[in-house]
Design a protein that fits this description.
Number of helices: 9
Strand order of the largest sheet: 3-2-1-4-5-7-6
Order of helices and strands: HHHEHEHEHEHEHHEE
Structural class: alpha/beta
Strand content: 15-25%
Shape: globular
CATH superfamily: Vaccinia Virus protein VP39
Radius of gyration: 17 Å
CATH topology: Rossmann fold
Length: 230
């Protein structure tokens, strides 16, 4: 269902890219509208009947992530895939509220730092799914480094980004990261890639199928000197 090759040429955008404003700069109503959009996107009856999320649930669980820190969790789709075995962090207060209303553990960035879950080495896995493409490259690397200390030594990093069609579908996407670019992000953080592949279909499908994803994993090696900068 997948392949490990990568494509380095970024997709052409049909509309000019406009940087997505930081959630803190959005009006409360705009943030709430976006949260409702995320919730509605996964809730149509036909999607539930057809089980369109099943392959993605299966893929994430097959990686055996353990107890997960899901950064950029949105309304909690991936936490649902993992039966709530983890904690979500998102800058959108409305998304966090919806995730909590669904019974998930979710916090804003500031709330997480003040919570009992913000412990060095307290998680088995750092998951950043469909987040890095919304950030300038340097900010994506900084986000990764900021949250890595919360993962135990020997734990896992999972990064997921959209392929060509998925990237083109959202004009707020800023940075196209295929497996080559994701590998650079991982290695710049001092980690080694353990797996890199296309899912659920081979790379050629990603030019037309907007839900094809790049998936890359790495083992987290945390030195005794690692500290969290709060």
């Amino acid at each position: 269902m997948n392949q490990s090759a990568s494509e380095s040429d970024p997709p052409e955008m049909s509309t000019p890219l406009t940087p997505e404003p930081a959630v803190s700069a959005l009006g409360e109503s705009v943030a709430a509208d976006y949260a409702r959009y995320l919730a509605a996107r996964g809730s149509p009856l036909w999607k539930r009947l057809l089980g369109v999320q099943w392959p993605y649930r299966w893929n994430l669980r097959s990686l055996d992530p353990g107890y997960v820190l899901d950064v950029g969790c949105g309304v909690g789709r991936n936490l649902h895939h993992l039966d709530g075995q983890g904690v979500g962090v998102d800058p959108n207060v409305a998304c966090v509220r919806l995730a909590r209303a669904a019974g998930l553990k979710a916090f804003t960035d500031e709330e997480f730092l003040g919570s009992r879950y913000a412990r060095v080495g307290g998680f088995d896995c750092l998951l950043i799914s469909h987040v890095l493409e919304h950030l300038p490259a340097a900010q994506g690397v900084e986000l990764l480094r900021r949250y890595l200390p919360y993962v135990r030594g020997g734990g896992q990093l999972i990064l997921i980004t959209p392929q060509h069609a998925g990237f083109r579908a959202d004009p707020t996407h800023l940075t196209y990261l295929d497996l080559n670019q994701l590998r650079v992000v991982v290695e710049s953080s001092g980690l080694e890639v353990t797996r890199a592949y296309s899912f659920p279909f081979p790379l050629w499908a990603g030019r037309w199928f907007p839900y094809n994803e790049f998936v890359i994993t790495a083992e987290v090696v945390r030195s005794a000197e690692s500290v969290v900068d709060k």
